[in-house]
């Protein structure tokens, strides 16, 4: 599914049909599903289409850049230690058109998951986050990559106390998503500073032809950022 | 020749020269102070005031300081009597003060609005029952575009002294529906259906969680209160859409919203009682279904 396609082509994907047709030098992009039909005309377009996972904070419309992952079960971590767990995240697929010079533009986003949002913090000083509830895995989970990807999370407890972690907040600016034939992954860390404060961020994987880095939307838009890290200041 | 004799032999410098040199020096110092004040104000207020207003404020500060130094220090040095100026200025100040009372009030209110910042450009607000989007905050007035698209100028004094409701100051807000169902319907089932609708709504926030409960046993219906938290940018669209979805879904599950109903009793002829079955047929079905059973003792 995550691959580069040369028009014309048609894909059927869990009730979604994606097609691109050539018509008098233009390209007609069309996506139909049970509840909506999207059609776009790409004038004088000549390029390939790339479908890959993107930061899962865009649907139904982008109102935040934060993803909150709520743990099904709390995790306890001992003082001064570093532990690895695996979480899941919802997959959103970005459909890009790419030009011959490597330029690209996002033209559509698709997900098979239900979107839900939540408030992290309080109503006046908190922030809106995309909400996702995840089971905790000790080893790499085998997931259906059409729905879920995995986050390899290093939890670092910098305090002198046992810490209970119930959630993690990530900033989409800074997400580095990788995908292969049977895996969609991110690698992240969460550094606990105290009971109410933690910092999250992302790390890179070594890429191979079978495990590539996604075209990311938030860096592709070239938005100037003050921070690409997630600061959890309303509890962990 | 010793030094004292040398100095004595020098031609006497007139006092006017000293005064002039002193005045020039003080003027130059005033310019430097004015520049310093300008830089300080620019640094401390650049995030709080837009550029156009900041420029006006900086110029007012700069020229105001120089004028003050001229009147306070240079005039006495070059022999200009300030007493006449002060009297004239005082009288003029009183006249101008009375004439520009409201203008100065608005100016000062505008300054405090800028410092306190209860509203920002683009916010949706309610000031003195005037609601709309803040288009601009000027020195003397605040410009609002009402929801009807009208231009409204409100003096800053009014803004500052009125109760201000800023609808978008917080990231989330809550809205509420009251859904009435018939007495014969299962309220637990209705709550389960409504909760399902809210759970499927992306912008109905997971936390703070929605609350759905039977609030009152009304005259005509069992009233279920539905409270939902939503992002501030999405609540209105969701509020205007979701109530109809709830109504339709409840009806699909056989739960109806009852009409207001009233039982009419006729006195006289020794026959008082509930309307006969024939008369009852004129009532809509929903009303009949929702009627509580009459108590025997009231017949």
Detailed description of the structure:
Chain A is mainly beta. Chain A has one domain (3-232). Chain A has one helix and 19 strands. Chain A has one helix at 217-220; strands at residues 3-5, 9-13, 16-23, 26-32, 37-42, 48-54, 66-77, 82-90, 92-98, 104-111, 117-120, 127-134, 148-157, 163-171, 178-179, 184-194, 197-203, 212-213, 230-232. In chain A, the strands form four sheets. In chain A, strands 8, 13, 15, 16, 17, 18 and 19 form a seven-stranded mixed sheet that branches. In chain A, strands 1-6-9-10 form a four-stranded antiparallel sheet, with no helix packed on it. With 299 residues, chain B is an alpha+beta fold. Chain B folds into three domains: 14-99; 118-166, SH3 type barrels, CATH 2.30.30.60; 170-292, 2-Layer Sandwich (Alpha-Beta Plaits), CATH 3.30.70.100. In chain B, β7 and β8 (222-231) form a beta hairpin. The chains are: A mainly beta (236), B alpha+beta (299).
Total discrete domains of chain B: 3
What count of domains describes the coordinates of chain A? 1
The counted number of beta strands of chain B is 8
Output the radius of gyration of chain B: 38 Å
> Oligomeric state of the chains?
heterodimer
Poorly predicted segments of chain A:
none
Overall geometry of chain A: elongated
Strand elements of chain A, count: 19
Query: Helical stretch count of chain A?
Result: 1
Helix % of chain B is 40-55%
Q: TL;DR of this structure?
A:
With 236 residues, chain A is mainly β. Helix content of chain A is 2%, strand content 54%. In chain A, a hairpin with a 2-residue loop joins β16 and β17 (197-203).
Highlighted features:
heterodimer; A: 236 residues; elongated; B: 299 residues; SH3 type barrels; Alpha-Beta Plaits; 3 domains; 5-stranded antiparallel sheet; 10 helices; disordered C terminus
Map the helices and strands.
The complex is a heterodimer of chains A (236) and B (299).
Chain A: E1 3-5, E2 9-13, E3 16-23, E4 26-32, E5 37-42, E6 48-54, E7 66-77, E8 82-90, E9 92-98, E10 104-111, E11 117-120, E12 127-134, E13 148-157, E14 163-171, E15 178-179, E16 184-194, E17 197-203, E18 212-213, H1 217-220, E19 230-232
Chain B: H1 3-9, H2 15-45, H3 51-77, H4 82-99, H5 101-116, E1 124-127, E2 130-137, E3 141-146, E4 151-155, H6 156-161, E5 164-166, E6 172-181, H7 187-199, E7 211-217, E8 222-231, H8 235-252, H9 277-280, H10 285-290
Antiparallel strand pairs in B: 1-2, 1-5, 2-3, 3-4, 6-8, 7-8
Helix pairs in contact in B: 2-3, 7-8
